[in-house]
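Just curious: can you write whichever protein you like plus the matching structure tokens?

***
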Amino acid sequence: MHILEKIVAYKKQEVTQAKSITSIEDLTKSGLYNRSCNSLLSTLQANQVPAIIAEFKRKSPSKQNINLNADLSQVTEGYADAGAAAISILTDRHFFGGNSTFLTDTRSRLSATPLLRKDFIVDEYQIHEAKAIGADIILLITEILTKKQVIQFSQLSRDLGMESLLELHSEVQLDKYTDTVSYIGVNNRDLTTFEVDYDRSKSLYDRLPDDVPKIAESGLSDQNIVAMLYNYGFTGFLMGEHFMRHDDPGQSCRSFIQETNKLLGTKHMIN
């Protein structure tokens, strides 16, 4: 059993336990459940500059401890001040050191910033939960979902006023696309081996639907790579580890955005 299979098996047990404690009806009574969500889609469609989705992540199975002592409010507010288009927050506790309270706390301080719940969604319950804790966007990973589930989950997120990011990392997963997802993410990291290949985004781009914004994910740390992928057609970039390994992730994010925009301002085309 590889790491992704372990995560999914554990997640299913976790969801079963959560259901026994808090019902969906209870979730709908949350003060955040009926709020109007913030949109990332409009920013991605505008395509004026690369939209950086900055991630708060303390650890991961592939990199182990990244920044265990990172201060949630300092980092997330730093991201917002730096000009991040959205903030991704890990809520998986067991494997990534996340927590649902991280998202709720961030929502209380950053009311206008789109927040992505970064987790392994395997049940509709988690989508209601995402809405209840203040998320605007959910992640749907094709590697762990059937096409039927992608359709059901993306439609539910839309019905609840949220947006959905469909993540894929291989050509065989393209048939799981449905027009009810808000945008498509190409993960440069193989979720079974955790190896990173930047050409993955380029090789899959031409196979993706024209009218859906594309987001490049994982392993991004070089402004030249981001600029190249932006020129190729990607409008969003999900980044976490690169920023989180700095003493001041917010400042790291600010510098990255400024340097990338400057690079694009001086080069019309990057091969």
Observations:
- Residues 3-266 form a domain with the TIM Barrel fold (CATH 3.20.20.70).
- The chain has a mean pLDDT of 92.
- Strands lie at 51-56, 59-60, 64-65, 86-90, 115-118, 137-141, 163-168, 183-187, 214-217, 236-239.
